[in-house]
Amino acid sequence: MVLLVRLFGIVMLLAGLSLLIDPDFIIDWISNQKENTWLYSMAIVIRVVFGILFLIVAKQSRSPLIFKIFGFIFILAAIFLLFAGQDNFQHFISSLIPEIQPYGRVSGLLAMIFGGFLLYAFPGNKAFKKF
User: Fold this and answer.
1) Which of 18, 83, 97, 118 has the fewest CB atoms within 10 Å, i.e. the most exposed one?
2) How far is CA 116 from the centre of its chain?
3) Are 5 and 123 in contact (CB under 8 A)?
């Protein structure tokens, strides 16, 4: 389970790096995919899975309370998306992209910080454990 959180941290670091280098790549991809049912479905499924995962591994982390909070936020976001429906999800994405596009690099930096935190919270080697 911890391995999944660490892999998610690596994915967040890479996504953040991609946003820092070329924010339009990810933002345009999301914009082009917003009408696909799988994007809406995956938005819900990923939030539920990682919400439950964060709640399960919280005690093993360096910051159990933070992981519990993120776990509940992910699950609540999934429930909100489920009740909002796909049409409202598409409308939300359509209205959000023009607003957030100028801040793509800032979003990338925040994603990298979050990914780094996930790796820090579950150290896998002795070099991290010294801190």
Assistant:
1) 83
2) 12
3) no
Neighbouring C-beta atoms of residue 57, cutoff 10 Å: 20
Task: At 50, list the tokens.
Answer: 């990682």
pLDDT of residue 122: 87
Q: Which residues of the chain have pLDDT under 70?
A: 124-131
Q: What is the pTM of this model?
A: 0.85
Do residues 93 and 28 lie in contact, with contact meaning Cβ atoms separated by under 8 Å? no
- How far does CA 41 lie from the centroid of its chain? 15
DSSP 35: T
Give the pair of three-digit tokens for residue 62. 């360096």
Report the alpha-carbon distance of residue 91 to residue 52 in Å, rounded.
Answer: 27
Q: For residue 90, what are its two tokens?
A: 């598409």
Six-digit token pair at 56? 């399960």
Among residues 4, 3, 94, the alpha carbon closest in space to that of 40 is found at: 94
Question: Is the separation of the CB atoms in 121 and 4 below 8 Å?
Answer: no
Contact predicate 124/11, CB 8 Å: no
Task: Tell me which amino acid residue 110 is.
Answer: L
